[in-house]
Sequence to fold (348 residues):
Amino acid sequence: TNVMATFALLNADFAKEFQGIYMLEPYDPNKIPVVMVHGLWSSPVTWLQMFNDLRADPTLQERYQFWFCLYPTGQPFWESARQVRNDLTELRQEMAEQYASANGEQPLASREMIVVGHSMGGLVSRMLTVHTRGHFWSLISDAPVESFEGDPQTLARLRNTFEFSPVPGISRVITIGTPFRGSPFASDTVKWLGEKTITLPKVIANDYSKLVNQNKSLLKSDHPLIVATSLDSLAPGNPMLSALLAATAADGVTFHNIVGHLEKQTLVARVTRLPVGDGVVSLVSSDSPFAASQIEVDAEHSVLHQHPAAIMEVKRVLFEHLETRKNSRINIADLPGPLSPIFEQRLK
Fold:
């Protein structure tokens, strides 16, 4: 609900009690997981419209299962990515061990996933797939993490946040209204309000501050460690955004992108003179240089992922994925349930 989304934004320690991966149906080792990652000031409830529409298709219901992430949206997006990465990795390992076949082969759900992220959730989703290769840590220091002094748990979290490997098994990522280059909506005034109202996790507010004081001689910049809130992390020019754009994705991951392009700008966008886009994220910022497909939808940012055209595009990608898995030799007769004409034509 909106209440949950608000608490998850304003108080990360409150959200910690509820964060994790949620399923609305029993786990099925033979269905491909579609992992849905909400954005700023949001919760899994925001996916209800898309979930209902996707589940209404008999083929998608037969072939896919839907998982939902919940995380504190007030913290910087790279902290949220660390949490979602850990939650997803732990769940994947647990299910792989529990449902391993007699010959030791992992279940389909452990080998293959599709991630859908809206807004800031798109940045989180992208971070699940990239090799760091120093892109993020080099913003902080030229010295290795091992040379830093501090509490072992804090140092371990630091390493997991800025030096990590892609989550295995992700096949595709669909980003929706994602501010790859930040959003002018994260203005100085909005960031100031965020700093006054958002309570960050203790490790960011206190432990990282201690770490900075203990290792000043090793730091090139302490910005990624002391950045105030998620709003601050989305400001244009944030070097973490540039590093994420430059990072290399794991082999075999295909990216798709949906951007908002309002034919008629909102009143807020006109008054604040925001660039053309969805009223929050500009077309320039939401453009994906690594997407295999990209479409524009005439919808505002907050409801872009609920628009019929966006849902239809997600559905198209899910069917395209089924086609690819069959090496482009899919037999429509092999698919359970009727296909709508648009997808039946596409698969022929």
Summary: Residues 3-12, 186-200, 327-348 have pLDDT under 50 and may be disordered.
